[in-house]
Amino acid sequence: MSAIESSPGVDIRAIVEKQRAAFLAREPYTLEERCELLDRAMGLLVNNEQAIIDALTADFGHRSPAFSKGSEVLSPLATLKQTKAELAQWMQPEKRQARGGEAWVQYQPLGVVGIVTAWNVPAYMVFSGLAGALAAGNRVIIKPSEFNPHTSALIARLIASVYAEEEVAVVLGGPEVGQAFCGQPFDHLLFTGATSIGKHVLRAAAEHLVPVTLELGGKSPAIISRSADFKDAVAKVVIGKLLNAGQLCVAPDHVYVARESLDAFVAVAKAVVAKFFPTLKDNPEYTSIINARHFQRLQGYLSEAREAGVELIELNAAGEDFSQGTLNKVMPTLLLNPADDLQVMQDEIFGPLLPIIAYDDIGEVIARINARPRPLALYYFGQDVDEEARVLSRTCSGGVTLNGVMSHASSEGLPFGGVGASGMGAYHGIDGFRTFSHAKAVLRTAANLA
Fold it and tell me: Which residues are named in the active-site annotation (predicted)?
């Protein structure tokens, strides 16, 4: 059976040992075998689309079906297809220069990979992580979030239906199970989640010197330059913020706007929301906050900002009353120039609240960004090539999308990862294949050359 509710540490170790024994008992998976393993994952997504959407809706209270289909089915399906299409090329030895011999790098599977996923896009994280790990020829154990009980249970059943436990297994459980999971002697561990939890993951993995890839988060800024197509920039930032109700690790967290354009930003934002979300409370495309704890966290940010005198602008075209809502929906809200010491400017927001910060000079923006921990993403809107180059060279973030938001994170040709407090290491595409592989240096000396 490939999914277990484990007592912390005990059953997980048994699966690790079972997978490692299977890995060592035979030659590494061939290209054809790896492609067949990827095919099984693709079949799960194709054949269970509605079940995945329904499970996510049950977990969130309400979740946009269109977003669920795109992010949790079509996107990982595209990742798996592209991985399969490019895998033969990735597996080829990479020739290197060497004196007095023939040299190359040979990529070989590590063995047993652990994957811990977050709750905000759970199926995407499971299957995109699985794509890289299986492509590299590994056995895999997955620990999905307990915040998504319906989705996690479904994923466990689906994985168990097409993979043997020694190929891919799923472990279910709460924080104690997660802590025990991260302390296992994996050959690599991929964790996606909060920065605060990432510190605990590193400590647990250190016991066995397990290499770790951390996909964390942070306060990803958007910058709207004076040279930008203003209406287009505002629309992209606002719609990007409202996808999954802001519950995305690469969502624009706050936006820098030229001081003279502050009122124009508010006006365009109101028009954009009125067009795309004419109603919110019962709109099937507007997602709920995952649970009561996070709902109250967001309400706390608003209360603190209101008490501090921050101007709050609700983007509520229909003037709906949210006070009696039962689905943990939070009204999209702009916060004008909140002080840096407020919690909304300290924590990753992970919700549909958007602070707007007025600036006079781009140097001021760069300085403010550099005064914070390095973010997972940065977004720059503008046509000034010198200013763009300055932003790119003077700031450090996991990734950047220019004149858009979040697109870099879904591009399989680019590594996805953070830097500093927003993470370490990267995956997606060939970078995922290499993360889950050992790059073995090989030198054939001249004496052995024919």
Answer: 215, 249
